């Protein structure tokens, strides 16, 4: 059967309009959610310290930096009898284990050339901690390159005593001013802390566990299990929490300072791992999240679905913007009725800019988070950094089954700790 070319064009425009409207709705959803980040909800009351922590650090060849995080943990303003620091020296070929022991950590050395990566190392360490029989209430996870605020455990304790079983600390940067790449990371962190984690914490949805500064009740680990299938174990455990009706909360004054790459190539490799894990988890858990949304009307499941789909629809918006420009300017012979319902090119350009750059919200985040003015120029380079996500997301989508863990080389701490 021969279909008229105009009918095919019309069907194509209808499909384009539906996809366009779907992206508009998702963009509107995130914009509305961000508004809940403009205030801070009252914290739970501060009580006498009671939570017993197993503090765990996974390290692979981190002899140069691990002393910094261990020293900051040793200096916690929290009763020393209520926390122990454990390090898993994972497939190390340097002096990581020896340095960790000298700085007071309980060290376990692991060698496994098959199950590599942080998620498997943490699971292996947890099994050994549980075999000791020490009755820990929570585990707190950190990376070997971190610095931890002295009040971290004290702040998390207030949320734990209020009944929260999964708590994420404030992820900040220890090297924002090193290069434009590390500053772009910092801008992104300050934005998401305010308009993602705080916003969702304020309305009772699930904040994202960030892999470092994440505190999880041992009873919750027993219920859910620590058996990561992906190279992004933090996102995977967040999804599992939501599927079990647990909404991780956000402890805004418990800060952990993370180090980020200085060069675009190292950044590309790190973010490629993140996004491969992101896409793999989307395919793995989308069905379960939809089922929970339908059966329990759990809005946290919907919010998680939006988060998992975000890289896909943002890439679609990029290609739709190009298609829209072509339709309006390259094909002047296309009848007006055929493109009815499709937004003008300037609308798509504006939407793309707001998605990948979002100057008003970035500026708002910097103001609300009281970021030092010397870092404000990062708003401009963040636009360039944001564009690098487009090809990265496309490649990660098609290579999502590659779960190779790429190690990021770190350096000793500097005196700079974020925007404080």
Question: What's the quick description here?
Answer:
52% of the residues lie in helices and 12% in strands.
Main pleated sheet: 8 strands, mixed
Number of strands: 8
Rg, nearest Å? 23 Å
The overall pLDDT, averaged over residues, is 86
Low-pLDDT ranges: 333-338
Proportion of residues in helical segments: 40-55%
Count of the separate structural domains? 1
Helix/strand order, N-terminal first: HEHEHEHEEHEHEHHEHHHHHH
Q: What is the count of helical runs?
A: 14
Shape estimate: globular
Structural class: alpha/beta
- For the largest sheet, list the strands in their spatial order: 3-2-1-4-7-6-8-5
Strand content: 5-15%
Oligomer: single chain
Distance between the termini: 69 Å
Write the topology of this structure.
Blueprint: H1 5-34, E1 53-59, H2 66-74, E2 83-90, H3 96-102, E3 106-110, H4 118-131, E4 138-143, E5 147-148, H5 152-161, E6 166-173, H6 180-203, E7 214-217, H7 218-224, H8 233-243, E8 249-258, H9 264-296, H10 299-330, H11 345-356, H12 359-368, H13 378-387, H14 389-398
Describe this structure in words.
Helix 1 packs across helix 10 and helix 8 runs parallel beside helix 9. By secondary structure, the chain is α/β, with parallel strands linked by helices. The termini are far apart. It has one domain. The longest helix has 33 residues. It is built from 14 helices and 8 strands. Strand 2, helix 3 and strand 3 form a beta-alpha-beta unit. About 1% of the residues have low confidence. An 8-stranded mixed beta sheet has the order 3-2-1-4-7-6-8-5, sandwiched between helices. The protein is 52% helix and 12% strand.
């Amino acid at each position: 059967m021969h279909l008229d070319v105009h009918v095919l064009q019309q069907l194509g425009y209808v499909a384009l309009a539906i996809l366009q409207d779907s992206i508009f709705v998702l963009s509107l959803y995130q914009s509305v959610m961000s508004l809940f980040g403009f205030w801070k909800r009252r914290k739970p009351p501060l009580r006498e310290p009671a939570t017993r922590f197993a503090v765990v650090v996974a390290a692979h060849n981190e002899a140069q930096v691990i002393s910094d995080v261990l020293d900051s943990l040793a200096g916690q303003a929290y009763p020393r009898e209520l926390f122990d620091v454990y390090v898993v020296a994972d497939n190390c070929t340097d002096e990581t284990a020896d340095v960790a022991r000298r700085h007071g950590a309980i060290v376990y050395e692991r060698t496994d050339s098959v199950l590599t990566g942080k998620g498997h190392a943490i699971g292996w360490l947890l099994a050994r901690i549980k075999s000791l029989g020490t009755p820990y209430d929570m585990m707190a996870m950190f990376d070997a390159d971190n610095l931890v605020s002295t009040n971290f455990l004290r702040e998390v304790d207030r949320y734990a005593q209020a009944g929260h079983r999964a708590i994420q600390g404030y992820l900040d940067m220890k090297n924002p001013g090193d290069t434009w790449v590390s500053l772009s990371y910092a801008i992104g962190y300050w934005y998401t802390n305010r308009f993602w984690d705080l916003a969702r914490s304020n309305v009772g949805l699930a904040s994202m566990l960030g892999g470092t500064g994440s505190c999880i009740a041992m009873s919750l680990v027993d219920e859910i299990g620590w058996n990561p299938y992906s190279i992004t174990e933090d996102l995977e455990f967040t999804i599992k929490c939501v599927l079990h009706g647990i909404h991780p909360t956000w402890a805004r004054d418990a800060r952990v300072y993370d180090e980020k790459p200085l060069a675009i190539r190292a950044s590309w490799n790190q973010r490629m791992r993140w996004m491969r894990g992101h896409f793999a988890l989307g395919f793995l858990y989308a069905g379960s999240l939809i089922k929970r949304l339908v059966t329990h009307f759990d809005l946290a499941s919907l919010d998680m679905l939006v988060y998992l789909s975000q890289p896909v629809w943002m890439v679609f918006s990029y290609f739709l913007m190009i298609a829209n420009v072509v339709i309006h300017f390259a094909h002047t012979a296309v009848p007006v009725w055929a493109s009815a319902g499709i937004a003008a090119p300037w609308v798509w350009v504006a939407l793309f800019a707001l998605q990948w750059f979002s100057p008003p919200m970035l500026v708002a985040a910097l103001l609300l988070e009281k970021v030092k003015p010397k870092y404000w120029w990062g708003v401009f380079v963040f636009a360039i950094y944001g564009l690098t996500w487009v090809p990265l997301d496309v490649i990660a989508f098609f290579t999502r089954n590659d779960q190779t863990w790429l190690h990021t080389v770190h350096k000793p701490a500097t005196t700079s700790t974020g925007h404080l």
